[in-house]
Amino acid sequence: MKEFYTIGEVCKIFNIPASTLRYYDSIDLLSPWKSGENGYRYYSKAQFEIISMIGFMRSLGTPIRRLKKILSGNGPEGICTELKRNEKEIGERIAELELLKQKVALYEKNIAETCSSDEVTLETLPEMYMMSKSFGDRDELDVEEIIKVTRGSGNWADTAGIISTISVEDLLKGNFHSYEKYGYISELPCPVKNRYTEVLPRRLCACVTMRIRTVEHFEADEAYCRLMGFIKDKGLTPAGPAIERNILDICGSDPRNPTMFFRVYVPVK
């Protein structure tokens, strides 16, 4: 193995552009070892480890200014501190990506279940987490409050479904447009606990899909009638409010007139 290498050779060995090496030279981060009689400048193989380390640290996102400080030190403390910092940040990013993966899988599952069939089904739903507020209360749970509550906590509301609830009393009376509460629901744990949040236990529910194409939600009446008829035919009774969950909106050719897909859950016993 020879001792000295041109800029072009170093670029090929480490797969970096010549402009990067010239930049490192211009800011005194890493300069060629010597200049030859032909005017060429050469890097020594003794610099290969530093070149490799700089490339690795830059791939982790370490800023140039911090790298210069690390390289000017006389011991391993600087690089060790930087590696520990990166290890912590990578762990946090992995956790964020794992959560994002969960959100994608749940979103895909809910869309598939909602858009594949109009049949009424009897299902055991998993534990769910709801943040809701009664209609008509002064301190309404608005978008700003949701943002404030979930900020810095994985943006829980991003993939939580917007919901409205209908009381058992109104369900039995056929009042399918008389809503009790509104808010958000998700299979993922809500990272905050306050007077708006509650945990819904794993329970048996009658479920139906609604495809809504009118502003007045006229299609809801037919879906709820089928749902309540199913509950009656099976000898069941509602054991809690209906949860009307918005799963997906498709704008189509008219953004002002979307097709809205809802999934309705009615706990039964």
Index terms:
2 domains; 3-stranded antiparallel beta sheet; 11 strands; 8 helices; alpha+beta; Multidrug-efflux Transporter Regulator, Chain: A, Domain 2; Multidrug-efflux Transporter 1 Regulator Bmrr, Chain A
Describe this structure in words.
The structure is a single chain. With 269 residues, this protein is of the alpha+beta class. It has eight helices and eleven strands. The protein folds into two domains: 4-72, Orthogonal Bundle (Multidrug-efflux Transporter Regulator, Chain: A, Domain 2); 110-267, Multidrug-efflux Transporter 1 Regulator Bmrr, Chain A. Helices cover 39% and strands 24% of the residues. The strands form two sheets. Strands 4-9-11-10-6-7-5-8 form an eight-stranded antiparallel sheet. Strands 1-3-2 form a three-stranded antiparallel sheet. Strand 2 (34-35) and strand 3 form a beta hairpin. The longest helix has 39 residues, at 77-115. The termini are far apart. The relative contact order is 0.11. The model has no long low-confidence stretch (mean pLDDT 89).
Briefly characterize the structure.
The chain is an alpha+beta fold and 269 residues long. 39% of the residues lie in helices and 24% in strands.
Q: Tally of extended strands?
A: 11
Largest sheet: 8 strands, antiparallel
What amount of the residues lies in strands?
15-25%
Strand order of the largest sheet: 4-9-11-10-6-7-5-8
Shape: elongated
Spans of at least 5 consecutive residues with low confidence: none
Mean pLDDT: 89
Termini Cα gap: 79 Å
